[in-house]
Design goal:
alpha+beta; 7-stranded antiparallel β-sheet; 5-stranded antiparallel β-sheet; 14 helices
Length: 719
C-alpha cells in the first residue's frame, strides 16, 4: 500500500515533532537528572569528609594528651627529685651543725668574721650578733657555743655552686651564714646599714615558718634580705631535745625556671607552676590572665575555667582538661610537685592540636572542588554533544542517545556506590570503571586520593608507634641511670680523698656506668665499665652487672679481686643468652695507706698522675684480662699500685676518646691525658677536673652531643 504525499508529510511532521519533543524533554530531563545525581554524590562526599576529619581530630587529641601528660609527669618528677635532693642537703648540714652544738668540748674553737663589726663579702662564712643578743649579754658558755658551731664554715663552701645563701639562725640571737652574691666583692646584706644593726633571725619569715616544721620543708617564693626573690628549704634544729633555732638554704627561683625550660620537648610549649596557696610562681608566656601572682589566689580569678583548674592543682590532683584563658581555648595537663606541695601545668592551644586535621580537611575540600568541576564540565559536554547529534541524525540518533545516557549515568551510579562504601569505612575499596572518558579519569583521581590517604594514615601510625617505643625506651634508660649511679661523693673525704664522678648520656643511651662504695671504714671500691650494645637491654645488663659486682665484693671478706671477678663472670655468663659483655676496671683502695689492688677486664686503662714526678701515665701493668660474661671459668689477674698524697686516679669510658671532630680526628687518649694533667697542675678539685676534661672534648669535636655515653670518675688523695 502506497502512502500519499500528504500522509507522508504528516507522518514526517509527526516524526519531527516527536523528535523535537524528545530533544526538548531530553534537554530538560538530563540536566535535572544530573543535578539530583550531583547532589547525592555531594552529600556522600561531605559525609566522607566529615568522618575523615573527625577521626583525624580524635587521633590528634589522643596523641597530644599522651605527649602533654607524659611531658608534664616527667617535669613534675624531675622537680620533685631536685627538691628532695635539696632537702637531703639541708638535713645533712643541720645534723653536722647540731653535732658541733652538742659537743663543744670535742671540737676546735673557731672565730669567723662578725658582720656586725666587719665588712663581709660574697662567699665568706660569717657570724652576726643581733642587738637583742648584745643586750642580754654574751656569756662565756654562749661564746664557746658560737665558736664551736663556726666549724660549719668548713662544709658550707661545698654548696656555694647550688644555693644563693646558707644560714643558721639561733634563738639566742646570733646567725652563722654565707651569701653568694653577683660579684665576689659585693658585701652581704647584713654587712650594710641599717641591716647590721637591725637584723635578728627570729624576726624573719623563714624563721617563724621553720619553728612549726617537723623536719625539712619549703617556703613559698618571698623577697630575701638581698632584695632577690627566693625559695628557702628550712628546718628547725634541736640540741639535746631542746629547740635552738632554724637553718636553711635559699634557692634562686630562676634555677627552677631554667630547669623546666631545659627539658621542654616542643618549641613554644606553655607552662606555669602554682603554689599551695593558688599563687602563680613561674610562667613562660605573657597573658593578662596568666602571670606571676605572688600574694593573689587565682582560684578567685574571673576566668572560671582557670579558677576550677587551680582548685584541682592546689588539691594536688593530676589530670588533662580544657581551659579558656583570655578568650582562647587550651588543653592543659597538670600534676603535683611533691616535697613543696606545688603543681606543674603544661598548656597547648586547641587550634595548634587540630591544625593538622584542618590541613587535611582543606586539602580534601580542594580535591572535592576539582572533582565536581571536572564532573560538571563532563556532563555539560555530554548533554550538548548529544543534543547536536540528535538534531542532525534525528531517529537514527534516538537509540544512540539512550545508549549514551546510560553510558554516562551508569558509571556515575557505580562511582557513587563505591564512594559510599569507602565512606562507610572500607578504606581498601577502589572504583573500577572502563568507560574511557572523564568519568574514568575522575574514578582514577579518586583511587589515587584514597591510596594516598590510606598510605598517610599507615605512615602516621607507624611513626607514632616508633615514637612510643623510643619514648618508652629512653624513659626506662633514664630511670635506670638515675637510680643506680651513686652520688655520695663525700664518703672518702674524712680519709683525705676527693672523689667525683659523672655520667654524660647520649641521645641513644648505652650501658656505661661507674660505681663506688665503702666495704668498711678503710676500704673503698671504685669501678667503671661499659656494656655492649645500646638501649634498654644494655641498661638492664649494666644494672645487673653493677649489682652482681657489688654483691660479691661485699660478700668476700678477703677482698680477693681475682676470686671475686671469677665468680661474677660465671654468674653473668649463666643467663647471657644475648651474648652481651662487660668491659670493667675495678680497684679496692686501702684509704689509710693508699694501696690499691685492681683488675682490668678488657677496659681502657685509667690515667694516674704522680705528685712526686709531676707527671702522669696510663695504668698498664702486664696484659689486660678478658672482657666478662662471654665465657665461663675465666681467670683474672690482680695488680697493685699506691696512690700517694697528691696523686690522682682518673677513670673513663671510650665515649669521650672515640668521638671524631669535623676534621675527622679522634679526641683520643693523649688529648684526654693532656687535659687532665693541665687541670691537676692548676690544683682543681676532682669535680672540676671531670668537668674540664669533658669540656675539652666538647671544644675539640665542636659540639656538645656525643654518639656514645660517657662515664668519668676522678679520685685525688690530698696532701
Amino acid at each position: 500500500m502506497k502512502l500519499t504525499k500528504s500522509l507522508r508529510i504528516k507522518l514526517t511532521f509527526a516524526a519531527l515533532c516527536g523528535s523535537v519533543l524528545f530533544i526538548i524533554g531530553f534537554a530538560i530531563s538530563s540536566p535535572v537528572k544530573s543535578y539530583f545525581l550531583l547532589n547525592e554524590i555531594n552529600s556522600l562526599e561531605r559525609n566522607t569528609l566529615n568522618n575523615i576529619t573527625t577521626r583525624a581530630e580524635n587521633y590528634a587529641l589522643r596523641e597530644e594528651e599522651r605527649r602533654l601528660t607524659s611531658q608534664n609527669e616527667a617535669v613534675s618528677d624531675l622537680l620533685s627529685t631536685e627538691f628532695r635532693l635539696i632537702s637531703e642537703d639541708v638535713a645533712m648540714l643541720r645534723d653536722t651543725f647540731v653535732s658541733f652544738l652538742e659537743n663543744p668540748d670535742r671540737t676546735k674553737l673557731r672565730e669567723l668574721p662578725n658582720a656586725l663589726y666587719e665588712d663581709v663579702k660574697s662567699k665568706t662564712p660569717y657570724v652576726h650578733y643581733s642587738q637583742r643578743l648584745l643586750k642580754n649579754g654574751l656569756t662565756p658558755e654562749l661564746v664557746k657555743e658560737i665558736k664551736s658551731v663556726s666549724n660549719i664554715a668548713d662544709y658550707i663552701p661545698f654548696f656555694d655552686d647550688y644555693y644563693k645563701c646558707l644560714f643558721f639562725g639561733a634563738e639566742a640571737g646570733y646567725s652563722v651564714a654565707m651569701y653568694v652574691m653577683e660579684h665576689d666583692y659585693d658585701l652581704v646584706p647584713v654587712s650594710k646599714e641599717p641591716n647590721r644593726l637591725t637584723y635578728d633571725p627570729v624576726t624573719r619569715i623563714w624563721y617563724q615558718e621553720g619553728k612549726s616544721f617537723d623536719g625539712t620543708g619549703f617556703t613559698d617564693v618571698y623577697k630575701a634580705k638581698s632584695g632577690d626573690m627566693a625559695v628557702s628549704c628550712i628546718s628547725p634544729y634541736y640540741a639535746n631535745g631542746t629547740f635552738q633555732g632554724v637553718m636553711g638554704v635559699d634557692c634562686n627561683p630562676q634555677w627552677i625556671y631554667e630547669l623546666v625550660k631545659s627539658i621542654a620537648v616542643e618549641e613554644g610549649d606553655l607552662y606555669f607552676i602554682l603554689s599551695s596557696k593558688g599563687e602563680i610562681l613561674f610562667v613562660n608566656f605573657d597573658s593578662d590572665a596568666i602571670k606571676v601572682t605572688l600574694g593573689d589566689d587565682i582560684r578567685n580569678s574571673e576566668e572560671k575555667s582557670l579558677a576550677n583548674i587551680a582548685e584541682k592543682m592546689v588539691g594536688q590532683d593530676r589530670g588533662f582538661d580544657t581551659v579558656t584563658i583570655g578568650g582562647k581555648d587550651y588543653f592543659i595537663a597538670y600534676s603535683p610537685i611533691t616535697n613543696v606541695n606545688w603543681s606543674f601545668a603544661s598548656l597547648v592551644p586547641v587550634e595548634k592540636v587540630y591544625a593538622p586535621a584542618n590541613e587535611i580537611k582543606e586539602h580534601l575540600l580542594k580535591i572535592k572542588e576539582d572533582y565536581y568541576s571536572n564532573l560538571k564540565s563532563s556532563i555539560v559536554l555530554i548533554v550538548l554533544s548529544t543534543s547536536v547529534l540528535v538534531l542532525l541524525l534525528l531517529f537514527f540518533i534516538f537509540r544512540r542517545i539512550i545508549r549514551l545516557s546510560d553510558s554516562v549515568v551508569n558509571p556515575i551510579i557505580q562511582l557513587t556506590r563505591d564512594v559510599n562504601e569507602f565512606a562507610s569505612g572500607n578504606l581498601d575499596k577502589r572504583v573500577k570503571l572502563e568507560s574511557h572518558d572523564e568519568i574514568q579519569n575522575i574514578a582514577e583521581s579518586f583511587n589515587s586520593l584514597a591510596q594516598n590517604l590510606q598510605d598517610n594514615i599507615r605512615a602516621l601510625s607507624e611513626v607514632s608507634e616508633q615514637k612510643k617505643r623510643l619514648d618508652a625506651e629512653v624513659n626506662v634508660v633514664n630511670e635506670i641511670l638515675m637510680n643506680y649511679l651513686p652520688d655520695n661523693f663525700s664518703i672518702a673525704e674524712k680519709k683525705g680523698f676527693d672523689l667525683f664522678a659523672k655520667e654524660y648520656p647520649s641521645k641513644s643511651s648505652g650501658g656505661d656506668f661507674y660505681d663506688f662504695y665503702l666495704l668498711d671504714d678503710d676500704h673503698l671500691v671504685v669501678s667503671i665499665g661499659d656494656v655492649s650494645g645500646r638501649g634498654v637491654p644494655s641498661a638492664l645488663f649494666m644494672m645487673t652487672s653493677k649489682a652482681v659486682i657489688k654483691s660479691f665484693c661485699n660478700m668476700n671478706s678477703e677482698r680477693d679481686l681475682e676470686n671475686i671477678l671469677y665468680k661474677v663472670n660465671n654468674r653473668l655468663h649463666e643467663h647471657n643468652s644475648e651474648q652481651m659483655y662487660v668491659a670493667l676496671f675495678i680497684g679496692i683502695i686501702e684509704l689509710s695507706s693508699g694501696r690499691m689492688s685492681y683488675v682490668n677486664a678488657g677496659h681502657y686503662a685509667p690515667y694516674v698522675y704522680r705528685a712526686e714526678s709531676s707527671s702522669g701515665s696510663f695504668l698498664i701493668d702486664g696484659s689486660i684480662d678478658s672482657i666478662m660474661a662471654l665465657n665461663p671459668n675465666v681467670s683474672f689477674h690482680t695488680f697493685e699500685t699506691i696512690i700517694n698524697p697528691g696523686d690522682l686516679l682518673y677513670m673513663y669510658t671510650d665515649g669521650i676518646t672515640s668521638e671524631i671532630s669535623r676534621n675527622g680526628e679522634k679526641f683520643g687518649e693523649d688529648r684526654l691525658a693532656a687535659s687532665v694533667l693541665k687541670a691537676r697542675e692548676d690544683n682543681l678539685s676532682s669535680k672540676e677536673i671531670v668537668e674540664s676534661s669533658y669540656h675539652a672534648a666538647v671544644n675539640f669535636i665542636g659540639r656538645d652531643e656525643f654518639s656514645d655515653d660517657i662515664a668519668l670518675l676522678c679520685l685525688q688523695r690530698k696532701k
